[in-house]
Amino acid sequence: MLLPSPSSGLPARYVIQDGGLYEMQMVDSEGLRSWFVGDTIQSDGALFLITPFDPVFMLIPILDTMRQKTPTSEGKFLMLEGIFGSSNDQYPSMRHLTNLKNIDGYLALVCEVRDSSPSMKTFRLDDDRVMGWLKKKMDVLVSKFGTIPALVDSIAYTESLPEACRSEAITQSVLRLISANLSDSWATRLSANYQFPELDKLESRTQLPSMSEFGKRSGMDLDDEPKTKEVKKPKMSVGQRKLAKASTAGMKPMTSFFAKKA
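Structure for Ribonuclease H2 subunit B, as requested:
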């Protein structure tokens, strides 16, 4: 099913199975490729990967939009039907998020909840709870860093560095991973809570020469107008080329998904 990506708001594919949310991604490569499956040959060599996805990342931007916060108001409390209602024309599948196992529990992690009765429970995103949840997520991943190969590989360059630098590199790597699932505004707010003084010192000691120094070493006259160097665009995968050719005419911004119908 199509849902808005938490980081970009653009359409992305997800699956709900056994009450859990999964992200679907297509992996392909350049050139023709096929697979032998049993006694048949599948001409499409692309692979579809389905990986577990924390529903809270999906909920944050939806709730952020739905509460309609203003400088003078914290926004509205809404019931589940109001948050994931069928009035969403571009993402009708959003209503299926109510089928997630323990959806009320996920909402309570980042929302202020009013529970006047079992049938009248309402939710409103709370910024402090969101930030608290994100920091806790950071702590959990940092503590389990050594068990996640992709994260370990991301800081392989720090093996010979002092422990202080390596510790900061671990936190920085986790921050990048979590920020990849957040909008720019939430990623900026989260990153403001973390500083990396040892890595900053290391970077300043190993930075490239200044432009004036570079000119002296290369013999280039910096007063001359530099020639524009053609930058080659990276090759796109088959899936990326198909997406680039797709028409985006009539695509609405995310904030329009929840607008009241006239």
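The mean pLDDT is 80.
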